[in-house]
Every structure is written in C-alpha cells, then in structure tokens.
Amino acid sequence: MSMGITLALLAALGYGAADFVGGAGARRVPSMSIVFAGQLTGAAAMLTVALVSPGAPTLAHLAWGPLAGVGSAAGSIFLLRGLSRGHMSVVAPTSAVGAAVLPVLAGLAGGERPVTLAWIGLALAMPGIWLLSRQVPNHTEAVGSEASAAGRGAFVDGLLGGLGFGVLFVALGQIPESAGTLPLALNQLTGALVTVAFATAVRQTWRPGRSAAGWGIATGLLGVSGSFAFVEARHLTDLGVVAVLASFYPAVTVLLARTLLGERLGIGQRLGLVFCSAAVGLIAAG
Fold it and tell me: Is rRNA-binding one of the keywords (predicted)?
C-alpha cells in the first residue's frame, strides 16, 4: 500500500475519531462550544508547527486556508440543521457521499485519470460510505406529509453539508508542500469565526467552559491531525482518491462506538464496511 493511501486512511482515522469524541462531548456540554474550542486548538497546533517549520506560503496558498474553513463550518452547520429536523437517516449519508463526490469531479476537471481498478474501488466506495453513515429511522421522525416535507428539507441540508465538506477537501487539496502548515491554521481560525457568527445568530452557547474546553482540545487535535494527513496524502496521490478514502471516517466513528460504547452495528453498516474494505484494496492495487 502506497504512503499516499496510508495517509488518506489516517485522515479518515483522525476525522472519525474527532467525530466520535465530539459526539460524546455534545451529550454533556453545548456542541458549539466544543466546535469552537476544537478549532482554536487546531489553529494553535498548526501555528506551533509553522513556527518550527514555517514553509514559504504565497498569498494564493494562504487563501485556500480560509476557503477550507468556510467549507468546513458551512458543512457542519447544514449537517447539524438537517439532523435537528429528525432525519438522520437522510442527511448524514447524503452529506458524506456529497463530500466525496465533489473532489472526485474536481480531480477529473484537473486532469486526474485513475486506472480501472481504482475506478472500481471509487465506485464501490460511494455505496459503502452511504451505508456506513445511514442510521435506522427512529420514532421521532415525522410521518405522512410532514415526513415528506421534512425529508426533502433534510435531503437539501445533506446536499449543502456535503458541498461544504467537499469544498473543504478541494481547498485542502490545493495547498502545496512548500506552503507549510500556516494555511491549515487559517483554516481552523476561519472555522472558529464562522462558528461564533452562526452560534450568535441562532443564540447558541459557543463560549467553552472547562469541561467543553477539554472535549474541544481532544476533538481539535484529532480533527486537525486528519486535515494534516489529508494535505500530506494529496502531495502523493490524486485528490479524488484521497478525498474518497478520507470520507471513510464514518467507519472509524461506528467502530469506536461499537468498541467503547457497545453500540450494535446494523446490517447496512456491516455491508458498508465490506464495501469500503474492498474499495481500499482495489484503490491500493490500482
């Protein structure tokens, strides 16, 4: 397995672990305070690395960081809004697949042409990501005409969330090795500002207390590690391949929930793991 593919899978590990920790913390403290603390932590970590190894970023390189931050924050906001409508089984998989599709299209537009085996792997990955992210509808979801309207709204939120995360991946993929980690710090800082603006607009708490800060630090370090691995993977292989493999992060989240919380995997999630495992093998072989 190439180093690029390994790093892309490490990105999925970082993102998935961050989602698991953030989700666990959100059961105890306001979610926006965790997100804000996490983004500040990620920014501080990348600024520290930049001081040690500053790189030579141009203004164009630095501009990709804020764009990635806007995409990340927008993706999270629409995902949370869709989930709040009670249609997790619609919005989560739509968002996850959308995040993978946009970078693949961007890569094709940029001249990337994966070999046949890699194409088969990418094709298998899409239903795998969908199945991993999908959860069984529960009794709180609307029924009848209300279900139809709420479902359409959740689907749109899922698409917009996926677009935001796709923009994050595409923007991160444009940061060259020579730029160092300063663009990643700007990514995190921008995300923090957008989070504050959104939380203020909807009157949600974003100032982290001691407990929220602890959850945020853990989430931030894991999340920014995922982004760092993503950028490094992109230096070694195609954007579409890196983005699809990084989008396997739901596998990490559900496996951690199964291992640490005793949550049971549904049949669809088990099948999704099989699809994603096969996709990794085919992409690696290609």
Answer: no
Go through the chain and tell me how many residues it has: 286
User: What is the DSSP annotation of 109-147?
Assistant: HTT----HHHHHHHHHHHHHHHHHH-----TTS--HHHH
Q: How far apart are the first and last CA of the chain?
A: 10
Per the CB < 8 A criterion, the answer to whether 205 and 78 are in contact is: no
Q: CA-CA distance, 96 to 158, in Å (whole number)?
A: 8
The pTM assigned to this predicted structure is 0.89
Q: Which long-range contacts (CB under 8 A, 24 or more apart) does 111-115 make?
A: 112/238, 112/239, 112/240, 114/238, 114/240, 114/241, 114/286, 115/286
Q: What is the pLDDT of residues 274-283, one digit of tens each?
A: 999 999 999 8
